[in-house]
Write a structure and sequence with these properties.
The protein has 505 residues and is an alpha/beta fold. It is 51% helix and 12% strand.
Length: 505
């Protein structure tokens, strides 16, 4: 593919200056329009070493209001980044609605430099490419514009630039042994880049090849590419807004096939006596205390999500789960309605910010599944949004699992009568009154709608790598023990797998 690119392309200085003036003015206007429309923009600069990424970024931003963009340089990942999934860093750096994020190298390092250096193993590549495509698709579907620029120069041109950089004390640090190794094995590294371009050139996030031998030509093409893509995005946004119709709630007929689904078959009579509960609880908590130390030493991240009916017992289950765990090694993340900052990002952004480091545990009291439950039923997002979310969520959880995480999701299930009994109990006991709100009673009136949504959620998002565990919750004793037992079993299994893998190395 790249061998067909004409690297001899140049532009006359006067032509370049004229285009720069015209397109620069246009870009400044587009930035203001993007802010008003609330469209986030990601501009990626990838390409061969010494192709001029820094220079071209500097030229591009001259036309922009500096208050509306951020530039991120991705060099060697930090220790903090190495302890998390490779996309974690970039999820946290996605721009707010209406802002522009510019990346000097990006998430493609995983399949480029790291692959060349053998840090990314061959067997990891399919998952890495899949994770990258799903990441970009999710952002695009969420309204973001993704502009990917690949700056291309020849082996000889690269060698010439390396030598020039090394001649100056101020610039020689730009050239590393790794850069020279890639130049020496240029064809091999070029092939890696070509495969990346072919596997990630999509309709929603296409690549543009920039002939970068002539810096003026490259700057002109970049500016034109960016302005054209942004104009297109604004036109599409206007068209979509005119046709957009937010769903006011769940249609029962549309989800009727889930009406008598998973929840209808749950045996809520399961229970434990107080004596059985105490004995099992003590044994499991002591075992979990040991396992918590093991996962820290083995650098195994754990993600536990808790959903369920109001008053279903999530808080009680989490309290018993964490009672013997080292508080330095876990975080409980309660999820409320998104705040003003969170609303300006993709709905998954706030959860990616809480993804645990390797060896740590993140416990979510309500989760990203609000998208397909409360947001669906209350009409806080469009029908297209919540229908698309099932796949987006599966992909997010797959990325966590691919990075070595244990991912478990618990639905704490009670019947309607038990919920009413717990609601009334909370109202009667002063120290529990804070737990009951008018919203809880309103949600109860939509029980049937929620049941359909939950059934669909369980069917469509329970996977081998991130299963749903329905917890019979009418008996709090039984529910707490089941949660603990499930976590203990999953950790023991994962620890055995990791130790076995380490033994084979």
């Amino acid at each position: 593919m790249l061998e067909k690119i004409d690297l001899s392309r140049t532009v006359e200085k006067e032509v370049y200056k004229k285009v720069l003036q015209e397109e620069g003015t246009k870009l400044g206007q587009l930035q203001r329009s993007l802010k008003e429309a609330g469209i986030p923009v990601l501009i990626l600069f990838e390409g061969m070493g010494a192709a001029g990424k820094g220079t071209q970024i500097n030229r591009l931003i001259q036309a922009l209001d500096p208050r509306g963009f951020d530039v991120y340089a991705s060099n060697q990942p930090t220790q903090e980044e190495n302890l998390r999934p490779f996309l974690w860093k970039f999820w946290t750096l996605t721009p707010e609605n209406g802002r522009i994020a510019i990346y000097d190298r990006s998430w493609y390092r995983k399949v480029l430099a790291d692959r060349f250096d053998k840090e990314t193993r061959k067997k990891e590549l399919p998952e890495a490419f899949r994770d990258i495509r799903s990441f970009e698709k999710q952002l695009s579907d969420g309204g973001a514009v993704i502009i990917k620029l690949f700056l291309y120069i020849s082996q000889e041109e690269q060698k010439k630039r390396f030598r020039k950089l090394e001649k100056s004390v101020e610039t020689k640090w730009h050239v590393t042994e790794g850069d020279w190794e890639k130049n020496k094995r240029y064809d091999e590294y070029l092939q890696i880049n070509e495969e990346m371009l072919e596997r990630t050139d999509t309709e929603f996030a296409p690549w543009t090849i920039i002939e970068a031998t002539d810096r003026n030509y490259a700057a002109m093409k970049i500016l034109k590419t960016v302005t054209e893509r942004l104009q297109q995005a604004l036109a599409e946004k206007a068209s979509l807004k005119a046709a957009e119709k937010v769903d006011s709630g769940i249609a029962l007929d549309a989800g009727s096939r889930y009406q008598n689904g998973v929840l209808s078959g749950v045996d809520l009579s399961k229970a434990l006596t107080k004596e059985e509960y105490k004995a099992k609880l003590d044994k499991l908590q002591k075992r979990l205390e040991i396992l918590h130390s093991d996962i820290y030493r083995l650098r195994i991240p754990v993600v536990l999500g808790f959903e369920g009916w109001d008053a279903g017992g999530k808080g009680g289950a989490i309290k018993r789960l964490t009672s013997h765990m080292d508080p330095r090694g876990y975080q409980v993340c309660p999820t409320a309605s998104p705040n003003d900052i969170e609303r300006k990002h993709h709905y998954l952004w706030r959860f990616w910010n809480k993804v645990p480091k390797a060896g740590h545990v993140a416990i979510f009291d309500r989760t990203w599944y609000g998208r397909v439950m409360v947001e669906r039923i209350e009409g806080f997002c469009s029908e297209n949004d919540w229908k698309r979310a099932y796949q987006e969520i599966n992909e997010m959880e797959a990325h966590m699992a691919n990075s070595g995480a244990v991912v478990l999701k618990f639905w704490l299930h009670i019947d309607k009568d038990e919920q009413e009994r717990r609601f009334k109990e909370r109202m009667e006991i002063p120290e529990k009154q804070w737990k009951i709100t008018d919203e809880d009673w309103r949600n109860r009136e939509k029980w049937d709608q929620y049941e359909i949504a939950v059934n669909e959620m369980l069917v469509r998002t329970s996977t081998t790598y991130a299963p749903w565990i329905v917890v019979e919750g009418n008996s709090k004793y039984y529910a707490r023990v089941k949660v603990l037992q499930t976590v203990v079993d999953a950790l023991e299994k994962k620890i055995s797998q990791v130790k076995a893998e380490q033994g084979r190395k």
